Amino acid sequence: MKFNNTFRNFLVFSISCSLFTGCDFSKRIDTTAAVKELHEREVKRITPAQFTAQVDEWGKIIVDSLNENLVKNIENKVLIDSLSSKYRVEILSGSPLKLKNIAFGDKINQILDAYQYNAERHLEQIDNIQKSDDEKFFFYTAPILQKGQFDGLKKTKIEELGNSAKFDSLSSRKKGEFIGLWLVKFSKKEIVRLADAKHLKKLSEQ
Predict the structure, then answer these.
(1) DSSP per position, 16-27
(2) What is the predicted pLDDT for the residue at 201?
(3) With 90 as the cut, is the pLDDT of residue 15 above it?
(4) What is the dihedral sign for C-alpha 119, 128, 146, 149?
(5) What is the pTM of this model?
(6) For residues 41 and 114, what is the distance between their CA atoms, to the nearest angstrom?
(7) Cβ-based burial of 179 (10 A; exposed 0-12, middle 13-18, buried ≥19)
(8) Which residues on adjacent β-strands are paired with residue 157?
(9) Secondary structure of 57-106 in the HEC alphabet?
(10) What is the helix, strand, coil percentage profile of the chain, to 5?
(11) I need a labelling partner for 133 at 20 to 30 A (CA). Which of 17, 22, 67, 150 fits?
């Protein structure tokens, strides 16, 4: 009978634990947590294309979730915190210039400059994925457009939301116009830990 690596490792893990716990059933193993830990420790060979595909998929999921109720998610950081924990990422919002950070490196700041250039000229804005200079991180950026999310709110409230999200002059934006960005910073190390090898293969085949 053949066993896959995850099952074999789990079996060894379980036997090893039993040597210490003996027949004391009050010390039960959390099998879900154990399997998850073993999955994260599993050696995975991920190609550059697969890294990009996984960041693109997760980035879209995160941004779409946040945009479903933009006002609520600017005011209340619960969803941002939840998504940050689930995908082990850093999530930021703001105008391109306010998001610029010397710690991000030249490549990322150049992308933010490009967003600012397009915004000033009312050019189309699109999602982007860029590796950091040291190649340890992936930055997923996505434009946020005015779609009537702030309709019915008082001007003071809109300004308050803009300040909280680090956007520029929300009250003057017309529908369809660019109001800011979501920036999601992925750790390459955490992508390796969280990614599923079989799913990565499917992503690369799409």
Answers:
(1) HHHHHHTT-TTS
(2) 85
(3) no
(4) negative
(5) 0.81
(6) 38
(7) buried
(8) none
(9) HHHHHHHHHHHCCHHHHHHCCHHHHHHHHHHCEEEEEECHHHHCCHHHCH
(10) 55, 15, 30
(11) 67
